[in-house]
Amino acid sequence: MYAQMVETGVKTVKDRSEMGAEEQAFMARIDEESKIEPQDWMPDAYRKTLVRQISQHAHSEIIGMQPEGNWLTRAPTIKRKLQLAAKIQDECGHGQYLYSAAETLGVGRDELLDQLHTGKAKYSSIFNYPTLNWADMGAVGWLVDGAAIVNQVILQRTSYGPYSRAMVRICKEESFHQRQGYEILLTMMEKGTQAQKDMVQDAINRLWWPSLMMFGPNDDSSPNTAQSLEWKIKRKTNDELRQMFIDQTIPQLEVLGCTAPDPDLKWNEATGHYDFGEINWEEFFNVIKGNGPCNKQRLAKKVNAHEQGAWVREAAMAHATKQQAKAAAKVA
Amino acid sequence: MTALTQINSNHDALNTYILRMADNNLVLGQRLCEWCANAPILEEETALMNTSLDLFGQARNWLNYAVDRDASLQDCDAVTMLRDERSYLNMLICEQPNGNFADTMARHYLFDVWHRLTLEVLCNSANETVAAIAAKSILEVRYHEQRTRNWVIRLGDGTEVSHQRMQTALDDIWTYVGEMFTQDEAELSLVAQGVAPDQQTIASQWRDIVSATLAEATLTMPEDGYSQMGGKQGEHTEGLGIMLAEMQSLYRAHPGAVW
């Protein structure tokens, strides 16, 4: 999943006794793990939080096409080009699918895109980093899609029905992307030249920390987590998910024969988890604020495509209107 | 280790034909890749990627056959990445720059109709491998044609702006239409053997189909003027070299590397 720091608009989690009958009934359904559906009553803040989270996720899929598109025209073999084009196509499909899920909450795609274009809505910080060599196409698949999957597997149990179902479908494709990404790296490490092996390590060095940042701030600086957990929009905290990701990724890193750029990374026998170093939160918050290496270019490219395409969308609408008028005239 | 030398450019008639088919797909597919993250709507983003994917997949089938017939071509990647523009045999229409969305759709539609008609005949080619590759390709190409046809109509019969842009796009691309129906000796020998279609027949079918679409789109069929030729013999427009430089850069920078 590609949502970070999703506002709930709620300062403290309400006690059940403070809730009206409708909200108590809603919470009872959440507690018994039944899915909330579009026509069901839901607290306004729950609806708004979901719209923010789902749309942020959708925007991330769409912006995420750019760092991969950067290498699409230069893919080194036909097979790799086919794989990359298919992955980009899948991501665009995920975006469409997620916008549809958000639409069930009463917000149109145009409105959501407008929020993205005006900078009001965010997308995952990871896509504000550049892709600088071909191994990045492997590392993005392995680490970025990998981090996304850790979150999304859990989100298949999220309380909102359409979002949960979208996750089931998306997870299948993301797992495929992750395996494909890893295979790109493994091929370069096992069969590659020294220059290719260096590319792989370089890609990991650059994308390692930004991938860990994808899970969002530490739990103690994540004021929205408690409410999102209460609503079962989120099912685990940022730190829990980050730890799961690291624990499952290190053995894969070792198979590659590569290292993580973290001197503090080591197995902790007592906890049964890997310990790891402090994330550079100053960098994280700066990227979120718009100061990442590619924030401006990514958004500018998206806005430009949208503006340059306005006449095409207008033409399609005008043509559809003409067709409807013709059909109506025939009936009359 | 693959030597970084030029790939053999002396092909027999059949491999010349196969490479022309492959290169049309490679070059147009690469142009469509350039649209990535620039499309006017998300659905088109998906469609452009998907079409590019189809074209590269088809190209790979053609190339594998060419390599089977001539081992000096090495493999489908070497033959894609190590030939320079003088050895590419695609038709000029396929390599024309994307321009705006109307330019892309006009180029694509005119090619799609040609592609579908050609593949339909190739499905019954006297050469079984050619027939099998064509049969596999045509399922995708029918859909390409349907989609680009819809866009020619939508833009032609949309707004004043879109009508004007689609008309200009057609007028601009028309000089590259004639080459699709020209045949050199190599190709004519394949026609005589029942391997390849006679483009004279296809030309008249193409004209009927395109003119019906343009009429529905309220567009004017451009006059046939002077035709730009040469792509099928390796004489291209300037843009192709730049496109190949980008496409081939990584492969060429690491000779012999496995990806």
What does this structure look like?
The complex is a heterodimer of chains A (332) and B (259). Chain A is an all-alpha fold and 332 residues long. Chain A is built from 13 helices and two strands, in the order ααααααααααββααα. A two-stranded antiparallel sheet of chain A has the order 1-2. Chain A is globular and about 70 Å long. Chain A starts with 20 loop residues before the first helix and ends with a helix. The mean pLDDT of chain A is 95. With 259 residues, chain B is mainly α. Chain B has one domain (13-253): Up-down Bundle (Ferritin), CATH 1.20.1260.10. Chain B is built from ten helices and no strands. The model of chain B has no long low-confidence stretch (mean pLDDT 96).
Give the count of helical stretches of chain A.
Answer: 13
Give start-end ranges of low-pLDDT stretches of chain A.
Answer: none
The main sheet of chain A orders its strands as 1-2
Number of domains of chain B: 1
Compact description:
The complex is a heterodimer of chains A (332) and B (259). Chain A is an all-alpha fold and 332 residues long.
List keywords for this structure.
heterodimer, A: 332 residues, mainly alpha, two-stranded antiparallel ribbon, globular, B: 259 residues, Ferritin, 10 helices, 0% strand
Topology, please?
The complex is a heterodimer of chains A (332) and B (259).
Chain A: H1 21-31, H2 44-63, H3 65-72, H4 78-103, H5 109-117, H6 135-155, H7 161-191, H8 194-213, H9 225-230, H10 238-256, E1 266-268, E2 273-275, H11 281-291, H12 295-308, H13 310-331
Antiparallel strand pairs in A: 1-2
Chain B: H1 13-33, H2 42-69, H3 76-81, H4 92-95, H5 101-122, H6 128-156, H7 160-173, H8 185-192, H9 199-216, H10 239-253
